[in-house]
UniProtKB/TrEMBL annotation:
Similarity section: Belongs to the P2X receptor family.
Protein's name in the database: Uncharacterized protein
GO MF term (any one): channel activity
Subcellular location(s) of the protein: Endomembrane system
GO CC annotations on file: endomembrane system; membrane
Domain of life according to the entry: Eukaryota
Transmembrane regions: 31-51, 323-350
Record keywords, A-Z: Ion channel, Ion transport, Ligand-gated ion channel, Membrane, Transmembrane, Transmembrane helix, Transport
InterPro entries in the cross-refs: P2X_receptor (IPR059116)
GO BP field: calcium ion transmembrane transport; signal transduction
Coiled coil: none
Length: 418
């Protein structure tokens, strides 16, 4: 162990091997190379770091909450709608049916449903009522089940004024998300993610996925929530209730439709500008429906099938950014990798494509002799070269040993002669 510590040369053990650097005096190659380097630097700073926000990462919205309620028009409902006809007595689809008043407060014509990641809302456009009786025929020890009563005709009604109703949306992100966005201490509204709990929030906008249709959202200054007209939601979603569903014989008003509204938060905690949010609407092929049954007696019940516009909410933070040293350094490392690629491309051009590539290789490449010689000439050549290499190394070691002895003996090494 003592021998290893006395004789070990850490400079030799930890020696670093580098490639030989050659300065190529060629103006056109230099112009192309340095222009490429400049373009990479500009792309890294402007394209990656600034435009693509390479200094930040997305903040996912976790633990948020959304609450929605529906309200009918306060003024008189228009009963002369084109789809209302009290003379029609039909339980199945018809373009016109008897209409009922949109009494949403009774929790019959409007329901709270489960949504994508938060609760949703079903605003009724058609309700059907069917009386059923229990078939007491036994199959083993199990009743056959419920069936429509012989004298219990199915009755269907359209809900008038659905397009004229309004939806109040209240949403908030979790305190943990607020802390991640604003840091360990929340300092004023500039460090907060704006939601409907902020009375001075900017006016939001509701748009479709392609951003081709949109509408402004009414904001309550008392921080009660955002008011959205159902007619605006349907317009932005591209849905008209009396249109027929593709490949179906029923209309959206009769069958129902499901619309998703993503609450998209935007902003960053790396500078001014604050945060904001918007609503993005999308339409699905899923009908909006809710079925419930009330037992009138042990053997009879009334089934209500509510169809309408089901609105499902979700919260999205894909445009919400927080500072990240990891992302910032990764952006610079990607730029450095591009510079390395540019250098490799330039070297490959000089070695394999340039007109004087053979001359260039004389400066950057060294060829060893054949270490597995097949002929006597190759064997002699290898031996002569190895002898010369050993002589060079021996001279180096002799000079090094002499210098070490001079240092040990206290003598100053002689100055090198020109």
């Amino acid at each position: 162990m003592s021998w290893c510590s006395d004789n070990a040369d850490w400079d030799d053990l930890l020696a670093y091997t580098t490639e030989k650097r050659v300065v190529v005096r060629h103006r056109w190659l230099g112009l192309v190379y340095y222009f490429s380097i400049l373009a990479i630097v500009i792309y890294t700073i402007v394209g990656t770091i600034i435009l693509q926000k390479g200094y930040a990462v997305n903040l996912p919205i976790k633990g948020g909450a959304v609450r929605s309620t529906v309200r009918a028009r306060h003024d008189e409902i228009e009963w002369s709608s084109s789809f209302c006809d009290p003379a029609v007595k039909s339980g199945e689809f018809n373009a016109t049916l008897p209409c009922v008043y949109p009494d949403y407060k009774a929790n019959v014509l409007a329901k709270t449903t489960t949504g994508v990641s938060n609760g949703g809302l079903l605003v009724g456009t058609r309700v059907s009522v069917t009386r059923q009786e229990l078939n007491t025929t036994l199959h083993g020890s199990v009743y056959e089940g419920w069936q429509d009563a012989p004298n219990g005709t199915k009755m269907s009604f359209y809900v008038t004024g659905a397009e004229d109703s309004t939806i109040m949306i209240q949403h908030s992100v979790s305190l943990e998300t607020q802390r991640k966005f604003g840091g360990s201490t929340l300092m004023g509204n500039n460090a907060l993610i704006v939601d409907t709990s902020n009375s001075d929030r900017p006016v939001a906008r509701i748009t479709n996925e392609q951003n081709t249709r949109g509408a402004d959202v009414t904001t309550f200054s008392q921080a009660n929530g955002d008011i959205v007209k159902m007619s605006d939601v349907l317009h932005v979603a591209g849905v008209r209730l009396d249109d027929y569903i593709p490949q179906h014989r029923e209309s959206y008003r009769y069958e129902g439709v499901t619309i998703t509204i993503a609450i998209r938060y935007a902003g960053q905690n790396t500078g001014g500008g604050g945060t904001s949010y918007s609503y993005e609407v999308a339409t699905t092929a899923l009908p909006g429906k809710y079925t419930e049954a009330d037992e009138d007696s042990p053997t009879t019940r009334t089934v209500r099938d509510l169809r309408g516009v089901q609105v499902l909410f979700s919260q999205d933070g894909s445009e919400l950014y927080v500072w990240s040293w990891y992302a910032f350094l990764l952006s610079w490392l990607s730029g450095a990798a591009l510079i390395g690629i540019a250098t490799t491309v330039a070297n490959c051009f000089l070695k394999y494509l340039a007109p004087r590539r053979a001359d260039y290789k004389l400066f950057v490449q060294s060829t060893t002799p054949d270490f597995s010689p097949d002929t006597d000439t190759d064997k002699q050549l290898l031996e002569d070269i190895l002898v010369e290499k050993r002589r060079e190394r021996g001279r180096y070691l002799q000079i090094r040993r002499k210098s070490i002895l001079q240092v040990i003996s206290g003598a100053r090494p002689a100055a090198a002669r020109p």
